[in-house]
Structures are given as structure tokens and as C-alpha cells.
Amino acid sequence: MGMPIMLLDGFGRRIEYLRLSVTDRCDLRCSYCMPRRFNDYAEPQHWLSFDEVERLLSLFARLGLKRIRLTGGEPLLRRNLPDLALRLSVLPGIEDLSLSTNGTRLKEFAPRLRRAGVARLNVSLDSLDRDRVRAICKRDVLPQILEGLEAARKEGFAPIKINMMAMAGTTDDEIDAMVAYCIERGFVLRLIESMPVGEPGRNAGFLDLHPVQERLRDRFGLVDGVVPGGGPARYLVSPDCRFQIGFIAPISRHFCASCNRVRLGVDGTLYLCLGQNDSVDLRGPLRSGCTDAEIAEALLAGLRLKPARHEFQKRPHQVLRLMSSTGG
Ligand code: SAM
């Protein structure tokens, strides 16, 4: 199949980045992400197999996809994930394979992930206070996460980014401590504004990051920086460039005009925007004997449904699905 077509959406944005949710299950119940008693998961028979994922993503890659992030739910809960990582890391055209994790199983998996070609890691860590972590994610996991981070550092993942949800009344008083921790360990810090995705996201205590950015600039003597592969985050860096902090502010400063990503759920649903409900089913075409050309057609047709922008402010109640099922 000769496919010189690029992955363009209806607004001419080039789609180069896919977040692949390999499971919608998670071993934590973070207050802003998943309801405590949630168990309405995708049926296992609907999970894309590794063969299906490989076929679909190799098609994507032939159309111009360059970067894949493995996410979830908690991706390290998917059995044999390093095997899938290995298969994806060698796909022609894929330049970057990364992983988002909550870190609870990182100590066990870091060596195998590294060998499988995962180069970069994002680890979610909202607090350095054990009780607070327990309160946010409903499990006493801070020691495990810190051990996982150490293991990842030893394996040479670079960069390791810490994703911290900046929430009014919950973590806002710990931002400076997290900056100090990341400076000491050589981690990149990314502060994230909570998005009204699902009911938990709407109740998260939104914190506008703009004033936080200005305060940290003065407090730590940081300057504006450009970070290669930094995505939509705005960065402040230390003058020697050793420390970087990104501000992901989809609400206060949306970056939809330069959005280059889509998300694939574990059941083969392609989500075009985190803040909208547009989606297209790719499991059907994959399982009904379609040719590669037909699947590519379904995919390109789906991309044309990508909306211009999210409407988190105008319609904060419209996204009912959870971040864990979309692939955050
Ligand atoms: N389990 C993995 C992890 O913890 O990184 C991957 C999935 S998790 C859904 C990915 C990211 O989404 C996490 O960094 C988390 O903080 C973020 N997230 C979850 N709910 C969010 C919300 N309502 N607004 C903004 N970010 C959210």
C-alpha cells in the first residue's frame, strides 16, 4: 500500500502523536481521575490485542505518526507490556516511545521497559507527603513510587518528568517542595491544571497556573526556556538549563491550535479531543476483515472529526468519560 498522505485533520493540523491507552484499569483511585468504587471497565474481549495494536499503529506510522506514549489507566497493569513496547519501538517511522505511569510498579518494570526501547518516562506524583498521597490516591504508595523513581534513574531514562496535578486546596502548598525535590534529583517537573474530564475532574479544585509560574520564576531565579519535545507546556528553566519546569495550562491558556495528538482507548476507540466527545471506532474495521487501505481510510475519515478546540469553560459538563478510559 503506497500511502504518501499525511495525517491531517480538518483544520490542517498535522497529527504526529498518539497516546495509547493499554488498559482502562488502575491500581489507584486519584480523587481527580476515577471515582472510588468505579468498576465499569472495558470488556476484556474488547481490548485490542498486541497484534491488533501493532497493525493499527504501523498503519498510523506509515501515514506519518512519529511519537507514541503508552498510558492508561495504569499501563503497567497490562500483562507483558514490555513486549508491546518492544514491538512498537521498532516500527518504521516511530521516533519516540514514552510511558506515563503512576510509578507503583516502576521498580519491577524499569529494566525491562528500558530494554524494550522506552526512552522517556512521565511519573505522576502529586505530593511528597505520605498521608497526602494516601488521601489523594486512596492507597499508601508514596514509598513505592519513590523507589520506582530511583530505579528509573538508575536505568538511565532521560528525561524523567514528574507530573504534578496543581490543585487549589490540595497540593498548591506543596509546589515549592516539589520544585526543590526535582532540582535535587534531576527530574523535570510539570505542573498540570485540572481539567473537567468526568465528575472527578470537575471537582478537582482548579488552580490557574499563570500566577504560580510568575511566583516560581522569582523565587527560584528561573527564565523562559524552550524544551525540545516539550509539547504544549510552557517552560521555565534555571539559568544553567539543568532544571526545567513545564506548565500545562489547557484551561487558562489553551493550546488547541497547535494540537498534534489523538488518543486510542484500549477497546480501539479513537478519541479526537480530550475535551470533546468525538470518537471513531477502529476495533470494528480491525476485526471485520478490512484491508490495510480500508482501515487507513477509516482512520483518516476519523481525523477529520477532530474538533477545533476543547470547550472546557463553555461546556464543563459535557465530557462524561473518565481520564483513565481515554488515556491521559
Ligand atoms: N496511570 C498513569 C499515570 O498515573 O500517569 C497514566 C494515566 S493518568 C490518567 C495520566 C495523567 O492524567 C496523570 O498525570 C494524571 O495526573 C492526569 N490526569 C488525570 N485526571 C486529570 C484531570 N482531571 N485533569 C488533568 N489531568 C488529569
What is the percent of helical residues?
Answer: 25-40%
Average pLDDT over all residues: 93
Strand proportion, as a percent range, falls in 15-25%
Structural class: alpha/beta
* Gyration radius from CA atoms, angstroms: 19 Å
State the major sheet: 12 strands, mixed
Bound molecules: S-adenosylmethionine
Question: What is the strand arrangement across the widest sheet?
Answer: 7-8-9-6-5-4-3-2-1-10-11-12
What does this protein structure show overall?
- This protein is an alpha/beta fold.
- 32% of the residues lie in helices and 17% in strands.
- A twelve-stranded mixed sheet has the order 7-8-9-6-5-4-3-2-1-10-11-12.
- Helix 6 links the parallel strand 5 and strand 6.
- The protein is globular, with a radius of gyration of 19 Å.
- The protein starts with 16 loop residues before the first strand and ends with a helix.
Concise account of the structure shown:
This protein has helices spanning 50-63, 81-89, 106-115, 130-137, 142-155, 175-185, 198-202, 209-220, 283-287, 292-303, 323-326; strands at 17-21, 67-71, 96-101, 120-124, 160-166, 188-193, 223-225, 234-237, 244-248, 261-264, 269-271, 279-281. By secondary structure, the protein is an alpha/beta fold.
